[in-house]
Amino acid sequence: MGAVAPANAILLAAILFGLGLAGVLIRRNLIFMLMSIEVMLNATGLAFVAGGARWGQADGQVMFLLVLTLAAAEISVGLALILLLQTRRPTLDSDVGNRLKG
Amino acid sequence: MQQLLALVPALPLLAAVLLMLAATRIGTNGVRILGVGSVALSALLACRIAVAQIGAGWAVQPFDVTLWHWMRIGDFAPDVTLHLDGLSLVMMLVITVIGFLIHLYASAYLDGDPGYARFFACMNLFVAAMLTLVLANDLLLLYVGWEGVGLCSYLLIGFWYDDPANGRAARKAFIVTRVGDTALISGLFLLATSFGTLSIPSLMQHATTSWPIGTAMPTLAAFLLLGGALGKSAQLPLQTWLVDAMAGPTPVSALIHAATMVTAGVYLIARTHVLFALAPDALLVTGLIGAATLLLSGASALVQTDIKRVLAYSTISQIGYMFLALGVGAWDAAIFHLVTHAFFKALLFLAAGAVILRMHHEQDITRMGGLRTAMPGVFVVFAIGSASLAALPLVTAGFYSKEAILGGAWDSGPSGRLLWCAGVVGAFLTALYIFRLLFIVFLGEQHRHPHGVTGWRIGVPLGVLAILAVVGGGLQTPALLGGIAIMPGILGGVFGSASHEGALALLPLVLASLVPLAGIALAWRWYGGGLASRFETQFTGLLLRGWDFDRAYDRMIVQPLMWLVRVNHHDIVDSFYEGLGKLAQRTHAGLSLSENGRVRWYAGWLAAGSVAALAIAVLS
């Protein structure tokens, strides 16, 4: 396994982040939006790891573990919320639930 | 006896208050007794006081009655003091006696009117206010009466308030006189700040000692007082309200707009004549305004077709004579004409009212005619009143008072001669218009038949006033014609002995007494056969509209004001604060549009914000 140039790794992270953001903005299904957020989180994790490798320090990988934990916690809370919403309104469309309109 | 003076204005005031409070409980007869009786008592009391106070040579013993101290502000401490001297005695007698006759007349004229009690309450209040005006020893108390009569005038012009036109006429009278009143109150402020008092005798004394003749201060003060007098007495340029004031009931026109209130301006100038004597410019203007007014309104009276409007223009014109007399310093002649004018003009108005009443409230003279046979009594008294107004030589009161004025003008230098000419032309116009009215109404062909009969409560006042309109001239006659001097005797204590006594030349006297005859002859030639030969030209319309003063004021004052009002309809200053409110509302609308509750939009804005923040951080 050859070394990957840090710039390329950062570029990949940025593309992944962009794809995730596009998914959040475009998809209306709450499950897909949650998955897109996961993609964005992983993109940041990748950026941390690439940074750690570039400077030869362990901090990047520590941060990645933190992000991983955070992602797990976030997804569990998110899925719980979606389940709750699903019992109230039988739909997964995020735009239908705009009851918090100002 | 002297202490009873206060009762003269107090009785009508008390009756007015009672009528206002208890109108519905005392019935028509009660209203009649209270309303007419109070003025009758007041008149009797006034006569009794006159008998007690007039001594040898008709001289009046002046006296003061201090009722109470009004207020005390530093050195300024006006009292409520009544002052009786020759001038106020004459005015008091005119107001109470003629007031009583008109009240008696009105009790029949307004029979069956739903506002009977309201009418008499206002009339009594008017008499009380007018008596306060003439008896006041203090200009401040005089001003109370001055505004009081203005208020009563407003209330009574708009007495039949069902018709919006009457309300408009009342407002017009109130607003136009207010212009003059503003000048008057400014004059009072000027005098009060100059001398620290408004008591008339001490004011006059201070003025003569500290203000030289012809300087700015007395001139300014005199002009301000003159402004008030012009408004109240309907003289040029504030004369427009009086003709519309004829919207009121006829007794109101007789009492307020002919005999008493409109002469208050003449009284004011006569009362403060010492001040006016210090301001020759103001006197000259007074005389010129009087001359212009008497000519312009005399000409307007020539073409009117409403019986009351003829008399209204005639009143303006006759008060112009009084101002002319004041302008040449013939104070007693002005007051003499005021008295005789009160007699014959009240008579003419009341007789016109009798005609109007029996013609089913018809006021258009073109629809009258030939009433001589149906109403002989009214015809006779109307003819007497007309003759007196036209100054028919030797036999009428109007002749003697007009001679006194013209004589005074003739004797007072070159400007006086000019005013004399105006007066003579005015006398010709007067004879022409009043006999035109008499001929059209009472001679010629009968168009409509009057109904009913004229009752005693209308007949008696007419008869008494007709007698007064004839014998009133006996109060003062020129030296050539007996030299009776009751009026100069009574007024002597106020104005000093008359200066033009006996100086009257024969030529102007004869000339001025022939002019009315010429006017009557012309009226007979044109209108003797009724209205057939009435002349109609372009000029007539201008005269009919009273020289278009109303239109000019409408263009110059009312319309610009209305334009400003329209422009400022949505308060220009306020629009800034309204703009602030609008801005807050717009911002609110915009921000709440962004709060649409859609998660994806929020995420998008978050992303956009982050990008923008990063871009700023990176690029800067």
TrEMBL record, chain A:
Q: Taking the first listed entry, what is the main subcellular location of this protein, grouped into a coarse class?
A: membrane
Where is the protein localized?
Answer: Cell membrane; Membrane
**What keywords were assigned to this record?**
Cell membrane, Membrane, NAD, Oxidoreductase, Quinone, Translocase, Transmembrane, Transmembrane helix, Transport, Ubiquinone
The chain's coiled-coil residues are: none
Per its UniProt record, what InterPro entries does this chain match?
Answer: NADH_UbQ_OxRdtase_chain4L/K, NUOK/Mnh_C1-like
Name the Enzyme Commission number(s) assigned to this protein. 7.1.1.-
Q: Name one Pfam family in it.
A: Oxidored_q2
**Record keyword Lyase present:** no
Biological process (GO), any one = ATP synthesis coupled electron transport
> What Gene Ontology terms describe what this protein does at the molecular function level?
NADH dehydrogenase (quinone) (non-electrogenic) activity; quinone binding
Where are the bilayer-spanning segments?
6-26, 31-50, 62-85
What reaction(s) does this enzyme catalyze?
a quinone + NADH + 5 H(+)(in) = a quinol + NAD(+) + 4 H(+)(out)
Q: Which domain of life is it from?
A: Bacteria
EC category:
translocase
The keyword Transcription regulation is assigned to this record: no
Q: How does it sit in the membrane?
A: Multi-pass membrane protein
Function, as annotated: NDH-1 shuttles electrons from NADH, via FMN and iron-sulfur (Fe-S) centers, to quinones in the respiratory chain. The immediate electron acceptor for the enzyme in this species is believed to be ubiquinone. Couples the redox reaction to proton translocation (for every two electrons transferred, four hydrogen ions are translocated across the cytoplasmic membrane), and thus conserves the redox energy in a proton gradient.
Family in the record: Belongs to the complex I subunit 4L family.
Assembly, in brief, is: NDH-1 is composed of 14 different subunits. Subunits NuoA, H, J, K, L, M, N constitute the membrane sector of the complex.
Name of this chain's protein: NADH-quinone oxidoreductase subunit K
Organism equals: Lichenicoccus roseus
Tell me what gene encodes this: nuoK
Automatic annotation (TrEMBL), chain B:
Membrane association type:
Multi-pass membrane protein
Which keywords does this Swiss-Prot/TrEMBL entry list? Membrane, Transmembrane, Transmembrane helix
Q: Does the keyword Membrane apply?
A: yes
Gene3D superfamilies to which the protein is assigned, alphabetical: 1.20.5.2700
Q: List where this protein forms a coiled coil.
A: none
Provide the GO biological process annotations: ATP synthesis coupled electron transport; electron transport coupled proton transport
Residue ranges crossing the lipid bilayer per the database entry: 6-26, 33-60, 80-104, 116-135, 141-161, 182-204, 210-231, 252-270, 282-303, 310-328, 334-357, 378-400, 420-443, 455-473, 479-498, 505-527, 601-619
Pfam families under this entry? Proton_antipo_M, Proton_antipo_N
Start and end residues of each NADH:quinone oxidoreductase/Mrp antiporter transmembrane domain: 136-430
Domain NADH-Ubiquinone oxidoreductase (complex I) chain 5 N-terminal, residue spans:
70-120
Query: One GO CC term of this entry?
Result: membrane
Compartment list = Endomembrane system; Membrane
This protein's source sits in the domain of life called Bacteria
Molecular function as annotated in GO: NADH dehydrogenase (ubiquinone) activity; NADH dehydrogenase activity
Broad class of where this protein is predominantly found: membrane
Does the keyword Ribosomal protein feature in the UniProt annotation? no
Record protein name field: NADH-quinone oxidoreductase subunit L
